[in-house]
Specification:
mainly alpha; 4 helices; flat
């Protein structure tokens, strides 16, 4: 298992993926899953329980806004470099 993870880590570093989010996902993923299951048990499997309280709705809306903003910035950057490449200008 260790050689497989080592090769995967090498390719992730070689391709420019940041290591910190991957480590956070590996470490906190099980904690998040456990607490998500616990909250579903408390709500008897009802997903709408995540929207009933104002704080949870606020956090979900903020998360959606941040995801949309990040995707918009990436799309604009991609389109800008693509236009500059098509025009023959160097990218900034």
């Amino acid at each position: 298992m260790l050689p497989v993870l080592g090769v995967a880590g090498y390719f992730l570093i070689h391709c420019g993926f940041p290591i910190a989010p991957i480590l956070l996902g590996l470490i906190l993923g099980s904690v998040l899953e456990e607490n998500f299951r616990r909250s579903l048990l408390v709500q008897r499997g009802d997903f709408m329980g995540f929207f009933y309280r104002p704080i949870s709705g606020t956090l979900l809306v903020l998360t959606a806004i941040l995801l949309i903003a990040a995707l918009t910035v990436e799309a604009r950057c991609f389109l800008k470099t693509r236009r500059q490449r098509d025009d023959g200008q160097p990218a900034e």
